[in-house]
Write a structure and sequence with these properties.
By secondary structure, the chain is mostly helical. Helix content is 67%, strand content 0%.
Length: 98
């Protein structure tokens, strides 16, 4: 028996003229293997979607960093610098805050 004849005989033994392909995987898995492969790819896609969503949410949270609120003394200093109040009023209010 020649090598070519041996290979062609093995190929026909799988039935329906198909060889050991993806649908059979050589283990007789058939439709179960096909369904498992589909579930695998669905899980991969879902994981990628969740990863992208997590990255978007975390980047948004980082961009909205709140500044600490100004203290009363800082506001008073700004008002004095703008000329809203004079030195006497600034000193008086500064004493009140201390």
């Amino acid at each position: 028996m020649s090598f070519i004849h041996h290979i062609s005989t093995q190929w026909r033994d799988y039935g329906w003229g198909h060889g050991p392909g993806m649908m059979d995987w050589g283990f007789g898995m058939g439709w179960f293997g096909f369904i498992m492969m589909g579930l695998f790819w669905i899980l991969i896609i879902v994981a990628i979607v969740f990863l992208i969503r997590w990255l978007v949410v975390s980047s948004r949270a980082g961009s909205h960093v709140q500044k600490p609120e100004e203290t009363a003394l800082e506001i008073l200093k700004k008002r004095y610098a703008r000329g809203d109040i004079d030195k006497e009023e600034f000193e008086e209010k500064k004493r009140d805050l201390s």
